[in-house]
Amino acid sequence: MAVLVFAVVLAALALAEFGPGWIRRHRRHRAPGPDQPPAGSPAPLVPDLIEANIDGEREEMRLAEHLVAGELPREQYRHHMTELAAQDAKRHPIVVPPERGNSPTPQ
To answer: What are the sequence ranges of the domains in the chain?
Structure first.
């Protein structure tokens, strides 16, 4: 009985570990349906924006490392992070739609 319980638990763990990957691989080999994009055409990525994000994140990590190590004063850290945030806001502006209750009504 204990061996059976052990085998069932082991099978469940193996399924939890390897099942999702197997399902993804299996789905890739199937033909796309009418509402699915073809598998050969991934969404277009803009390399410049990706590179900018990576550089910004690296700079944030570098600043955090220096702050934690005590090599950078807090004021200087805040100043650098403010500059990074301003650069990021220029590259990726946030567009907020107007709230429903505040829109002007036609007369």
So the answer is: 47-91
